[in-house]
Amino acid sequence: MKYFALALVLAFSASAQAEPLTLLTEEYRPYNFSAAGKPSGASVEQAELIMKALDAEYSIEILPWARAFSLAENQPSTCVFTTGHDDERSTRFKWVEPLLVDRMAMLKKAGSIVDPVNIEDAKRFTVGTQREDFSSNFLRNNHFPKVDLAADMEATLKKLLSGRIDLMMTSEKTFETMRAEGKDVEAALLLDGKLYGFACNLAVPDATIAAMQAELDKLIKDGTQNRIFEKYGLRTGQ
Strand 127-130 to strand 147-150: parallel, antiparallel, or no bridges (unpaired)? Predict the structure, then answer.
């Protein structure tokens, strides 16, 4: 197994990845966010460990999600994370995953009488999320009639707390972080679990993807991923 991993690293070094890899993300605690003027978070730490293990040139930049997602799809040598993997996105990118496995959650303002019992019932309400977010695909594919799209999660949260929307979508682990920080939100509905990872431009060489995947697999196998999750107050073993 050690020799296989070494072969992947050598293949990566000899691959057509001539340009530094640009890794784009968004403000989305606790996975990716700005701290002390630089990217931080549970997914950012994994990205840094992967790229340093490969001794590869890279950069990490935080942008509004819709712009980050569009650049990753249209610009070579670019990946976006932490990205939910669904059927609609599957063939549009090359994937390295999972940076996490999580369920989506619909949240309401604490004390709100909004009370969806299932997905169909939730369609009665105005649901907020971010442009090009994984959850926006979910809402579109399930024909939600009242969807409010914002530039980032903080804008969506402000709309929820001010009563401009009834529900917002995020991950269950992000909800747990919000609750630990004292945010005035409650879970209204929990949905199915999904994989989240790097979504890379189709021009990124297969050797690069394989080498990144091998390093992520090692982080998971040796317990590093779980230790990072625990550092950010995330439950493990989900």
Answer: parallel
